[in-house]
Amino acid sequence: MSARDSRQGILLLLMFLLSACAPTPLAITTISVRNLTGSAIYPADLKLSRDGTPQIAYLSGGTTRELRFQPPDGPSETVYTLENPAQSGFSFSLALDPVDQPGIAYFDERDDDLIYTERRGGRWVTETVDAVGAVGYFVSLAYDRQGQPHISYFDQTNNDVKYATRIGQIWQIETIDAYGLPGFHIPAGFTQLALRCLPTPDDCATMQPVAIYLAYRYKPYDGELRVAYRTAQGWQIETVDADRGAGGYPSLILDAQGQPWVSYYRASTWDFAQGELRLAHHDGYRWQVETIEEGDYVGRGSAITLTGDGRPMIVYYAAAPDELRLAVWNPGWAISRLSSDGIPGSWVSLAHDGQNRLHLVSADMSTQVTRYMVFSLSE
Predict the structure, then answer these.
(1) pTM of the predicted model, to two decimals?
(2) Which residues of 201-238 are buried (b: 16+ CB within 10 A; e: fewer)?
(3) Is the bond into 331 cis (omega within 30 degrees of 0)?
(4) Tens digit of pLDDT for each residue in 4-59?
(5) What is the C-alpha separation between 44 and 94, in angstroms, rounded?
(6) What is the CB neighbour count within 10 angstroms for residue 356?
(7) Calpha distance 299→250 (Å, rounded)
(8) For residues 248 and 266, is the Cβ–Cβ distance under 8 A?
């Protein structure tokens, strides 16, 4: 074990040992709040360019629903128009390539296909990734250092978690996990994909896909959180949290050492109303799992990022009262109310720009719009 790995292990151990200490709250200042043009109360996806400017994908409302893209400057663009505005299984994921060009993977509800589109020369160029069965639910997109797209997604026909990557101009498709039983009305899925460098971030000989997802064991709602690593021998699967109801709505980020951090929801009642916000982190040796908060819908929608010095930061929804909350390790969990304007909803996407500014998008159910918000954080 290297000296750096030893220091990292000691730091993580101290973080968990200090969880009982009184945390230092952060001072939160609202910098800006604005509504996305034509938006509604659906999920959105936010990414920051290297210079810290936002790029956002979201769904419009009204009689015609559209997948739209908001560039850093200029008007929003229509990427895809849904044929059935009432379609509830629509899924999409935004990512930026190494030169900050956007790409979006999404579920085409017309033909039940997985679609990938990328912005080239100011227009969107689209291709079909997978058209076998009903595929493309719970999609997650990431780019490697060469700008090639990688996608994790759910195959509803077979109840499998799958992975696609484009080699040259050809999409290669693999099954990550075929353990699920076909026919569930509420499927497994909720995939989140990230790429990490091997053997180390400083020596990136290859990029290994890491997929986090919810997997049902015997019946709907009886779930667990799993992680899968793509190795030379195929997909290696681990169970992160096997408690009943764990694994819902996961959010994944990798730290500077390439280790995963995951915030997610554990439903403690069958109607999903009572639940827990949980955090799982791999410290280089084993998975560490803890409950941050529990209550009415606490954590059903969450997003995780890391501060500039590597501390976890989670924004999540709590229903009593309706508000967005911010949990930051400082040390110990400092929990603050981030927004209670309206009913902020359970969908949130989050990024930290490294300059103590927090960027997020969240649906507001009282005004039926999705808002882009920026906050300043200070000790």
Answers:
(1) 0.90
(2) eeeeeebebbbbbbbbeeeeeebbbbbbbbeeeebebe
(3) yes
(4) 455 455 545 555 554 455 677 778 899 999 888 887 778 899 999 999 999 999 98
(5) 9
(6) 14
(7) 10
(8) yes
